[in-house]
Every structure is written in structure tokens, then in C-alpha cells.
Amino acid sequence: MTTNPIILDGARVADTIKEQLAQRVLRLAERQVVPCLATVLVGDDPASETYVRMKGSACKRLGMVSRRIHLDRETSTEQLLDVIRQLNEDPLVHGILLQHPVPPHIDERAAFDAISLEKDVDGVTTLGFAQTAFGFGAFPSCTPAAIMAILDAYQLPIEGKHAVVIGRSPILGKPVSLLLLNRNATVTICHSKTQELASIVRSADIVVAAVGRPRFVQGDWIKPGAVILDAGYNKGNIGDVDYDACLQRASAITPVPAGVGPVTIAMLLRHTVDAAENAASAQTIMA
């Protein structure tokens, strides 16, 4: 058992980020610039509607603009691409978020890649992923960025540590692995075909759980003193790790809820403000 493990309070980290953003939004307002996030929702998935509403409310609390575009479920790929093109061309829109998932008949990858790189505040484009791998330019996916923000907020060491990432999705497992690698961690990516998973996790100094299965990571998988970032969110507010069991061995752990989730939204807001500042600076240079 680890003595007094640190509960990594994502709500507190998110509040700190938003306090800093509020000052930046005020400075932009002095230049007649209001950061604007456009959210595009296709269909009527209740969970997606809730997520979009939460993101819109978070924008408004900071004095940002939330522009919501709600498209019918029968919207075609070409119609969706046309909407994204219009948002790309709108100078008042700084960030574009296409809510995942879209209906199955839509080419989601084509839609993601239609988003201009400078407005890809959710880190979903192929080019953005490539730039994340190289460590420059694009905005990383928001949940991986949130994980790194939590580690930094608590000054938890990354360099030289062995990080095991469970999950390889293109917007979570893969990009967070790259972010950790760029910070000089040694990274192992595990997935559904990984053999001896528990044994691999037991070697980890940092565990990132992003598998989408409730209480999947067991307490006896955890090396004493490991840091656990639980990026899972399952029905009933349950994460991907068995929290009570893992808490007994970890030196630090994120709860679910109030762990990675609030910081993910804060990072979306930060990226949108970054994009607004970038756009304002570009206009100043052109002028």
C-alpha cells in the first residue's frame, strides 16, 4: 500500500486553466476579438447533445462565443463538408469541433480532415496528428493534452519514466503516447491483441487507461508508486480502472468523474483562445 496517494483533482486543474484564459479573453476583447468555437453535431445522439451543451456553456462562462450547428441525421458527407468549408472561411470562427460519432453513412475521416489546421482545436486532422508526432505546430487532441496538463500541474516527472498506454485510438491512445514520447518517457502501447497485459502494466511508472471498459485495470496490475491517469468514462460515472483497488498501490491517481474530463474541456477552450490569438496576430502582421 502506498502512503497518502495524491488524488489528481482535475476540477482544480481545470479551474486554474480557465482563470488564466479569462484574462486572455479580456485582452482579446480590447482588440475587438471574441474567441469563437463552432460545434457541429450531426443527428440526435443524447450523449453527444449533452457534450456539445457542456462545451457551449463553458465557452459562455469565459466570455467566448459558442456557435452551435445542429444538422439532421440524414445529412450527407458532402453537405457536412460544405458546412465545414463555410466555417473554415468565416474569420469570426476560430475553432471547429465536429462532435464524434457521426452517423455511419458519413465519411468521418473526410469530415475531420476538411477542418482547417489552424481551426482544428480538437486535434482530429491527419496533418494535426503528424505535427503532434513531430512536436510542433498543431493543437493536440484535447484528452491527451489534458493528461499532460495534469501531470505538469502536479509536477509529476515524465522524463525517463516508463509509461504504459492501454488503448490505441487515434484521438487518445496514439496521440498521448506521442506526447509522452516527446517528453522523453519510454512508452509502451497496449491494445486488444497485447499478450501478458497485466505483466506489462506492472512495469509502468505511468499508466494511462483509455480502453473504454469499466474497472478494466485491476489493483494487482499496478506497480507500487505508479501514477495512474484514468481517461475512461463509462456508464454510471465509472472509469477504466478499479479505482479503490488501484488507489491502494498508486502514488497518484485521477478520479472519475472530476479527473481527466474537466481538464479536457479546459484544453478545448485553451486551444480556441490560442487560435483566436494566432488569428489576431496574423491580421496585425497583414495590416
Describe the structure.
Pathway: One-carbon metabolism; tetrahydrofolate interconversion. One of its GO terms (molecular function) is methylenetetrahydrofolate dehydrogenase (NADP+) activity. With about 290 residues, this protein is α/β, with parallel strands linked by helices. The chain has two domains: about 30-115, Leucine Dehydrogenase, chain A, domain 1 (Rossmann fold), CATH 3.40.50; about 140-260, Rossmann fold (3-Layer(aba) Sandwich). The protein has ten helices and nine strands. Helix 2 links the parallel strand 2 (about 35-40) and strand 3 (about 65-70). The N and C termini lie far apart (about 60 Å).
Q: What is the CATH C level class of the largest domain, in words? A: Alpha Beta
The main sheet comes to: 6 strands, parallel
How many H/I helical runs? 10
**Gross CATH architecture of the largest domain:** 3-Layer(aba) Sandwich
Radius of gyration: 19 Å
Unreliable parts: none
Strand order of the largest sheet: 1-9-8-7-5-6
Distance between the termini: 62 Å
Keywords: Amino-acid biosynthesis, Histidine biosynthesis, Hydrolase, Methionine biosynthesis, Multifunctional enzyme, NADP, One-carbon metabolism, Oxidoreductase, Purine biosynthesis
Binding site for NADP(+): 167-169
Catalytic activity: (6R)-5,10-methylene-5,6,7,8-tetrahydrofolate + NADP(+) = (6R)-5,10-methenyltetrahydrofolate + NADPH; (6R)-5,10-methenyltetrahydrofolate + H2O = (6R)-10-formyltetrahydrofolate + H(+)
EC number: 1.5.1.5, 3.5.4.9
